[in-house]
Task: structure prediction
Amino acid sequence: MLELRNIAAKTGTFALNDISLTVAEGSCHVIVGTTGSGKTLLLESILGLRRLSHGAVLLGGREITNEPLEKRNISYVPQDLALFPHLTVEDNIRYGLRMKGIKDREHARMVETLMETVGIKTLARRSIGNLSGGERQRVALVRAIAAGNRHLLLDEPFSALHRGLRRELWYLLKDLQKSCALTVLMVTHDMEEAFFLGDRVTVMIDGAIRQTGAARDVYEKPADTAVARFFGIGNIFAGRVRVLSESALHVACDSLGAELTIPMGVALHRPVEPGARCTVGIRAENVMVLKTDRPSYKQENLLTGILTEILLMGASHTLLFRPAGTATVVEIEVPDYALKKLQLNVGDGISIFFKGESLFLL
Result:
């Protein structure tokens, strides 16, 4: 287990602020944040490449805050991969073993198996300069794992690759993590990558942790408006708590011209009182479309209005909806097959429905 206790570090005018985090043994924990949010500085602080202002780093219950890098037993793949261009693939991989004083013959079979697993065995004698981006990523991963450490830090390892190759390497990393019993801490700016790979996800903004939790929980229930905005959630509406009952929270949202009902089990992750101002959000894919010429069995969280835009987003479409009597825009994500079935056109009058369990309170 990797544990960070209230660590702080500084570079120039930027600082990490009181970071505490636990990475469970055998898990993949992903930190997601924009460029400049402090992700790389955090990894360098864990490795001892940056001096901590205060706090502690523990590995397996043992404090390693003041240990030199080579004694921390943590492997690291930086953004630039740090491969040696003058060495062959095989020599790059064996370099890490030699630095640890491990003789080649002791790990020869393991290295060969790893190279075969990731598909670079036939490239063993090739120079790094003659490899593609994806091949270099594979070499860097094998070199890090071959060193024998069971804790692996990854700094945006796939950011320079195109989408198809990135997804291929995501699957590869998952397989390597399981087969090699790795504990992985990875940073990325790619939200899809974070939720695909992470057992747990941490959102970092401006050098501070804003939310940490199981990947599904973080995805469905952002902790605050800053996290929701970072995730690109456009459906965020100001409201006022009108009624607080045993079963539900009723929020008047003037911008929607409607009252939203949120089940109490969903709503109460923070104290609220009648009359209090609040913010309500929902992901675009959780908004249901109902044609106005068809009867609806929905009673709560139902809005009528006009479909103003249909935007192609690949395998899905983003619909823009304006509730009647308002200037508010609601985003709706609809799979391509569903849009064809609905036979919608810009200007159509439609109704939309917010699933109560999919609403979140900010």
In short: The first helix runs from residue 39 to 47. The mean pLDDT is 92.
